[in-house]
Amino acid sequence: MTHNKDIPTVPSTVDRLNAYIDRLGQSEIPRVIPLAGDASERNYFRLISENGLSKILVIYKEPFNYKELSFVNVTELLHQFSIPSPAILGHADDLGILILEDLGDLTFQNHLKGISPAKHINWYRKAIDIIVILQQQQDEKTTADYIPYRLAFDTEKLESELNFFIKYFIETHRGVSISERTKSAIQKEFNVMATTIAMEPRLLCHRDFHSRNLMVRGERLYLIDFQDARMGPETYDLASLLRDSYMDLSEKLFSDAIAYFLSQKGGERDPKKFRQHFDLVAMQRNLKALGTFGYQVSERHNPIYLQYIPRTLRYVRQTLYGDPRFNTLRPILGGLVHELREVNF
Known about the structure:
Blueprint: H1 13-24, E1 31-35, E2 43-48, E3 54-59, H2 70-81, E4 88-92, E5 97-101, H3 108-113, H4 120-134, H5 140-145, H6 155-173, H7 180-198, E6 203-205, E7 214-217, E8 220-223, E9 230-232, H8 236-242, H9 251-265, H10 271-298, H11 309-322, H12 329-336
Antiparallel strand pairs: 1-2, 2-3, 3-5, 4-5, 6-9, 7-8
Helix pairs in contact: 4-9, 6-7, 6-10, 8-10, 10-11
């Protein structure tokens, strides 16, 4: 096999990590601890110096221009909102490395497992407070300066995520062959779902506002993994939080959280209509998550996401059978995914 010499090769992650450590010029090499990353192609490492101070290295797939990184742009926006997030300590553009403040290892997900269920609602309220702050209306100057205000969950984006579910969860991960007739019927329903969601008024969304993207330090929540923020419906981040693939919520906690969100948003609201909007977005989010899990397991050989599939399917099932808008979609999906069949309900 020959290689085109005109195409530059990107040094491996380890090579770039070592190059960065060499640049530090320290007499003692810092301790390096690989960290579990997200579902992206970025790699994460904790560097601990001899004096015990630590920082997080994020190694991107390839070199970047710091000023053009969406993570940097959204970090500046979050600072405008006074929303806690990791400070950027430095960067090495040619190595594709971003250096961040170390927030520790305690995610919102793990924090909730270690405290009394009676205290959960107070922490969910803290998370909801962040969503409400994100949804503040901004002036034209602010919206012109920050990338998320130029991106949106439009019909095309939402529908592409639903089709990702078809390809990577049903066809690739489950190995189910779908006839063109059935696929056309699904896509017709997905188009209606995506179009309906896209027509809702748009506010700023984190995009992946769930329990693994919130860090706990002291009594505060810190937001991470926010580089894909964009405009979308007000229920989007709330659905990510309350129909979270990584957490089970009691019905009481769920209802209390919905009520708290509505109280913080203010104005006259029809709770039933709001719940309809919420359920539609939650369905899209959970199907999209299943597509991501299928892709991670089948294409990237990352089995850690297998454990989150059953819970996500339960959320899909709950919404699918609780809303008459899914009367057409229900038997179609049930015929392809055994957990969604009516006989098992």
